[in-house]
Amino acid sequence: MTQHETAPTTSELADEPQSTYDAGLNARPTPMMEQYIEIKAAYPDSLLFYRMGDFYELFFNDAIEASEALGITLTKRGKHLGEDIPMCGVPVHTADDYLQRLIGKGFRVAVCEQVEDPAEAKKRGSKSVVKRDVIRLVTPGTITEEKLLDPARANFLMILGRVRGAEEGRLALAWIDISTGQFRMTETAPEKLYADIMRVDPSELIVPETAFHDPQIRPTLDLLGRIVMPQHPSLFESSTAEERIKRYYGVATLDGFGEFNRTELSAISGAIAYLEKTQIAERPPLMRPERETDGSSLFIDPATRANLELMRTLSGNREGSLLKAVDRTVTGAGARLLAERLTAPLTDPEQIAARQDSVAFFLGETSLAQGLRAALRGVPDMPRALSRLAVGRGGPRDLGALHAGFQAAHLVRQLFQGKDLPAELAQACRAILALPEDYAQLLDQTLAEELPLLKRDGGFIRTGYHPELDEMRSLRDQSRRVIAGLQADYMEETGVKSLKIKHNNVLGYFIEVTANNAGALTDTDEAKARFIHRQTMASAMRFTTTELAELETKIANAADRALSIELAIFEELIRHTVENADAIRAGAAALGVMDVSAALSVLADEQGYCRPKVDDSLNFAIDGGRHPVVEQALKKQAANPFVANDCDLSPEGDQKFGAIWLLTGPNMGGKSTFLRQNALIAILAQMGSYVPATSAHIGIVDRLFSRVGASDDLARGRSTFMVEMVETAAILNLAGERSLVILDEIGRGTATFDGLSIAWASVEYLHEKNRCRALFATHFHEMTALSEKLARLGNVTMRVKEWEGDVVFLHEVAKGAADRSYGVQVARLAGLPDAVVERARDVLHRLEEGETSGKAEKIIDDLPLFAVVAKPREVAKPIQDSALLNAVQDINPDDLTPREALEALYRLKQLSL
Predict the structure, then answer these.
(1) Which residue in 202, 418, 493, 629 has a CA-CA distance of 20 to 30 Å to 255?
(2) Binding site membership for ATP: which residues?
(3) What is the enclosing helix (H) or strand (E) of 290?
(4) Where are the domains of the chain?
(5) What is the helix (H) or strand (E) element at residue 500, kind and residue range?
(6) How far apart (Å, rounded) are the C-alpha atoms in residues 650 and 497?
(7) What is the mean pLDDT of residues 883-906?
(8) Rounded to whole angstroms, what are the CA distances from 393 to 42, 145, 722?
(9) Has residue 465 got a pLDDT over 50?
(10) Structure confidence at residue 14 (pLDDT)
């Protein structure tokens, strides 16, 4: 169901008196519409989901925008200022589906609920409206619903902090995943602001309105587009930041949080203020802010992230990305941790080695790794379930997710018992052992086997946990059996075998006996006190008892009472959940660490990866390196195996070949693949993974730059060549000795000599100024002469073989330089028409013979090119010193009459025969 008729529901009659339903031009808005307009005025930037009965309604421009975004019918309801009021709505029970689509399109939604019973509104008068209020703002960065979240991707809300005064010019970023409680921050600067934001890849970026007036920041905000949400500067006020943070965490001092400057406090406080604004009365449990120090992770600029397709391909798909190729995790928490490590590889060799030790442990304990993955597989997402419960949006199944997580943790404890573990896994085991056993037992005792989605459905408390609840359920579900048992008791007590307990809508439950048997219930004072007369019939008498009346009340209220008891138990479980939130979150994170380590061991074993040596040297020596994505794609296609290649950029390597490799070779020879694979190997090594190589020795890379592929940015007036130059400029300005630079075809977007000049100068600059490790691919074969001048530069090429006019790509990297690019052969393979290919061969042959642009008219003279393409082109005979040539030269056209010109033409025709 996507839409509904818009007549008022029964529950809304108090809201919408019929006499004012169609307000005219001069009439006041209806009370309900007045309420809507007042609430909407407070949330002008959000679509207002206005609760009316079983629907969320939208009016005016909100309705028009939502109907277009969701593809639902736009209707109308009454008039306002003489105009029809546009309206559309969505059912409450499917609202999450519509929210998902709206959030995905960049909308923000204010959810407005009825906060009182409609019956209470009726008591105040016929024109009174049901009280409503916004209970939360749903924004891209603050969602917690399972349907709206990608289980394999963190959902970050990021805040930009900036202050005036002594710290003017300093910037800080804080980011929160409200669905897991993760809270981090770092200092940044205008020149690296975009890179730091894109590394985190937030769903929503909150900035002060004043940031748009800062010329150093504005270009970055324009680049980010719709994820940017400006807010009033008061949210970022540093003077009140400390108090806001202390109030949120319930602490008297921030001494235990670490030292923060004013800019950092502005970002942290801004994050908390925005959460308070969007979550209204709820307070999501957040970890304490954790600082990420500059240089602790490998710097990868946005262009490099895109070019290397780390998280998604250039077309935006996860399939074909590095993350997809290496992900073997079995839990949502593990998948998110893997993505986090992939986007922020470490620069500390000791921390990298600790992660590698975990992978090595599981490679040596394959049965243990299999048992761990079996225990974790299918475990629901504990961190996100915890957050939903803490903010009041969780249900019984979220408690069930925690219960399943505790059961998995128990199995993990048993698996690792008595094992000598590396440091990272030992720390994870300690966090798992610290999970609250009493809370786990409470969940085990309390929760039923089958859990409903919503707590209002009831039935989620285990039978036997609460005696009164069991009784109410028995009354609710087995009222006939209970009544029959009471009837049997009365029959035995009175001796009247025909005694019946009956029910009607007037008397409710009553005892009925025939007139002849009534004496057993009335003859004695004791009987009269016990059986109360209700009604006399012609042939029967009806009675009740205090016990029967109480049972009737219990039966009538049993369902409500049962649900009330369950909801009270649910709230008590929530209280225990929040009290144990830190321990639960730490244990869940530990399971994620184990999942990632075991998954990387599976990857290494499955794909034949090796453990790289990572240290503080400047070495970069890879033997038998492979591209992790392409290799797996070839295996799936059952194609030829991937050709492994070595790469040694080490300044003191055995080959001493050079820290910069100038790579030449044909198109389709594999140059781009070779460039990318070495960058990806460096990333995998520094995130703590094994790598696709026979062996690898990598000195820490602090910055990774890649300029591969062609793209434009027409929205900002940048051509393909301009984008290439901007990215190249960033590399040349920022790369240092520890950087790894990957450059492909610099200068190809302009005239040949211009491009060659730029590429030539760039290589010299990398060699002399940046002094970095670099791979530089080019089709400018003239550049190979640089190896004679630059000591740290070596020439390598992609090997090919020619066979009967065709080219065979060997995909092997070898020392030396290519003298041609085989572009025409590649054009033929791509399917260009034969005429084009043959003409290209002819032009290429002439150019290679030394015909310069000054003689290009000799080539142009052959036009039209393809008129008789099926016939071989005949070479014209030389006509020097011929009679025809002499006759033509003797003619002076200006001296000829028309008749003489015609006669001359006939003479020339005879001479040409």
Answers:
(1) 202
(2) 665-672
(3) strand 290-291
(4) 10-138, 147-294, 303-324+338-454+575-607, 467-569, 613-813, 883-912
(5) strand 500-504
(6) 103
(7) 76
(8) 23, 8, 49
(9) yes
(10) 39
**CATH number belonging to the domain at 147-294, selected among 1.10.760.10, 3.40.50.1110, 3.40.50.1820, 3.30.420.110:** 3.30.420.110
Tokens of 697: 């020795």
- Token digits of residue 34: 């007045």
Q: Give the Cα separation of 122 and 128 in Å (integer).
A: 7
Nearest Cα residue to 132 out of 149, 117, 142, 154: 117
| Residue 602 pLDDT greater than 90, yes or no | yes
Do the domains 303-324+338-454+575-607 and 467-569 sit in the same CATH topology, yes or no?
yes
Q: Which pLDDT value is given to residue 25?
A: 45
Spatial separation of the C-alpha atoms in residues 644 and 618, rounded to whole Å: 23
Mean pLDDT, range 168-177, rounded to an integer: 88
The CATH number that domain 303-324+338-454+575-607 falls under is: 1.10.1420.10
Span 505-515, pLDDT tens digits: 788 899 999 99
CA distance 70 to 668: 44
Cβ contacts of residue 498 below 8 Å, gap of 6+?
Answer: 513, 514, 517
At 253-290, the pLDDT tens digits run 888 888 888 999 999 999 999 999 998 888 888 999 99
Q: Quote the CATH superfamily of domain 613-813.
A: P-loop containing nucleotide triphosphate hydrolases (3.40.50.300)
CA distances from 528 to 518, 521, 524, 845 (A): 11, 6, 6, 124
Please tell me the distance from the alpha carbon of residue 67 to that of residue 104, in angstroms, as a whole number: 15
| CB-CB neighbours of 274 under 10 Å | 23
Q: How many residues does the chain have?
A: 913
Third-level CATH fold of 10-138: MutS, DNA mismatch repair protein, domain I (3.40.1170)
Higher-scoring residue by pLDDT: 748, 211: 211
User: Minimal CA–CA distance to 57: which of 103, 116, 15?
Assistant: 15
Radius of gyration of the chain, Cα coordinates, nearest whole angstrom: 39
**Per-residue model confidence (pLDDT) at position 575:** 94
Phi, psi of 441 (to 5 degrees): -65, -40
The answer to whether 800 and 643 have CB atoms below 8 angstroms apart is no
For 307-365, how does the pLDDT look when each residue is reduced to its tens digit (9 = 90+)? 899 999 888 889 999 999 999 999 999 999 999 999 999 999 999 999 999 999 999 99
Which letter, b or e, does each residue of 307-342 get, where b requires 16 or more Cβ atoms within 10 Å of its Cβ? bbbbbbbeeeeeeebbbbbbbbbbbbbbbbbbbbbb
Question: Binding-site residues, please?
Answer: 665-672
